[in-house]
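Suppose a colleague, Dr. K., hands you the sequence of a protein chain of 334 amino acids and asks what its three-dimensional shape might be. Before reaching for any lab equipment, you can write down a predicted structure in token form. Begin with the sequence itself:
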Amino acid sequence: MSRALYPAICLDTDLTPDAVGDEINEYSTAIHEACKGWGTDEKGLIKALACRNGEERVKIAMSYEQMFEKALHKVMDSEVGGDLGTALEFLAYPPHKAEAAMLKMACRGLGTNEDMIYPIICGRTNEEIDLLKKTYFDMYGDDLGRVLDGELGGDFEQLVTNCLQGIEQDFDPEFHNEDKVKEDVESLYDAGQGSFGTDEAALFKFLCTAPPEHLKAVNLAYAEEYGFTLSKACEKELKRASEKAAVFLIGMKLKPEETVAKLIQKACAGMGTDELLLTSTLIRYQSMLPDVDAAHQEEYGKSIKERVVSEARGKYETLLVEVVKCGLGETDEE
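The predicted structure, expressed as tokens, is then:
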């Protein structure tokens, strides 16, 4: 099964506000106090929200709305602007609702932010993709598949649509055996390098349905037989967004930590930082950060914290550093 990102509490349909506990209510009170009067205590908001894990964010959003009769994400949106405000708004949501908000933001205005879309949609568990679709509809009254169908096009749209189906198979050693590996290797070659033109439908269906264990075996066998890994084959056969999304999907199934480390680097590459991608990546993958940080240091020679400090400034930098420290278990709250 692909790597799960949501804490179990996101899937708990019976959770009640009474279950959050006194400590969570204290965080909610601290947030409320930070927003009272003239001006906003941004440092107080950072302390209250940036150091919380996914489960705590679910409970804080519930607690705040019960105590103060306002949706916490709307309060953050009205109180703080810029990159800091965007990050606080994402942190004010439970993780699955934050991802729905990220997708909504990626489709806002002229053009679509493809680099925000495929990391959220590709390489997810069936259960989480189903919850994400339901959450998006509950929050915005729109079918996520139809929204993305209207925003995207070509091969990229086709791959995203496949991922949205939530069709990854459970690994079955009796079915996903050596014969199945050989069969899929031949089929993939015929769909790509072995034909004039690429059968994207066959390729995308395989990538979305194959469980990680089987994909790993097929990838090794394909490389031995034809001299290319599946990622390299996708780079040769696909173009632009569909290539990036397919390579990312393979990476999340085979080497998720290295793939997330590369996504962080991507957000910081070039002449400027993609703050929205950096923010969403650090928040979405917070629970994976210990292993991601090790992969990032191995590949790029610096820690994620060092990367953030070199790319961000001011209170936005402070918040992202706290998000990273929380993920690494290095919080030092007084």
